[in-house]
């Protein structure tokens, strides 16, 4: 009895395929005439990473507290596969409203390169909808706080009032706001969201050995995590 399978290109799913010799392990190689992809014939059988849903699975696991090595151990994917999926991610948050009544702003420290190198996140949060509206990366200074203000302006987001703690940089950056609330009593919601981020993203956990080795993957991971917080039913 013969079993026949249809060979498709793993990239474009095309059927216009031709043979292209063998690799070092004597496995048949093929070329796709449509997208020019070169691949191995039994790629789909011995490499879990080719599964069409693998990227979505990796993104979901990152959004719910798994690091790269943990994902490799659970799924059997290679580290290169997980990092490639992270690199391919295009998650970007966009404001769901053009006008907000109150935005809470706060700073949040993370580590990149080593536990001695802090990289600060400053972001705006809308408590009523549990939405992260905008964020910027940088140092814990006035310049980064002003960058958040400019980011909100670039997104054409307006607001009636800004609430922050007593940190001078945030107070001064938004000092021209008509209604400014200052004090920890006004930032309880965003402090709670900080706790959620630290539970949801392994790279944000405060007292652990987890940190990002590169800023590129650091930003990618937080983009996925923030997108998941803003779109919990779509991740």
From TrEMBL:
One of its GO terms (biological process) is DNA transposition. Pfam families: DDE_Tnp_IS1 (PF03400). GO terms for molecular function: DNA binding; transposase activity. It comes from the Bacteria. PANTHER family: INSERTION ELEMENT IS1 1 PROTEIN INSB-RELATED, TRANSPOSASE. NCBIfam families: transpos_IS1. This is IS1 family transposase. The lineage of its organism: Bacteria, Pseudomonadati, Pseudomonadota, Betaproteobacteria, Neisseriales.
């Amino acid at each position: 009895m013969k079993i026949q399978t249809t060979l498709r290109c793993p990239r474009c799913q095309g059927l216009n395929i031709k043979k292209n010799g063998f690799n070092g392990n004597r496995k048949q190689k093929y070329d796709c005439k449509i997208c020019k992809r070169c691949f191995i014939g039994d790629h789909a059988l011995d490499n879990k990473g080719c599964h069409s849903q693998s990227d979505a699975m990796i993104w979901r696991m990152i959004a719910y507290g798994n690091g790269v090595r943990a994902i490799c151990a659970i799924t059997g994917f290679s580290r290169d596969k997980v990092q490639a999926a992270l690199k391919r991610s295009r998650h970007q948050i966009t404001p769901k409203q053009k006008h907000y009544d109150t935005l809470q702003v706060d700073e949040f420290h993370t580590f990149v390169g080593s536990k001695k190198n802090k990289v600060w996140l400053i972001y705006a949060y809308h408590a009523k909808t549990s939405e992260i509206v905008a964020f910027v990366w940088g140092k814990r200074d006035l310049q980064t706080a002003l960058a958040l203000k400019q980011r909100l302006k670039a997104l054409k987001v307006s607001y009636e009032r800004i609430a922050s703690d007593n940190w001078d940089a945030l107070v001064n950056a938004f000092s021209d706001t008509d209604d400014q609330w200052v004090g920890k009593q006004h930032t309880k919601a965003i402090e709670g969201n900080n706790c959620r981020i630290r539970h949801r993203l392994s790279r944000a956990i405060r007292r652990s050995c987890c940190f990002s080795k590169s800023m590129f993957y650091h930003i990618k991971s937080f983009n996925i995590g923030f997108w998941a917080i803003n779109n919990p039913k779509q991740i």
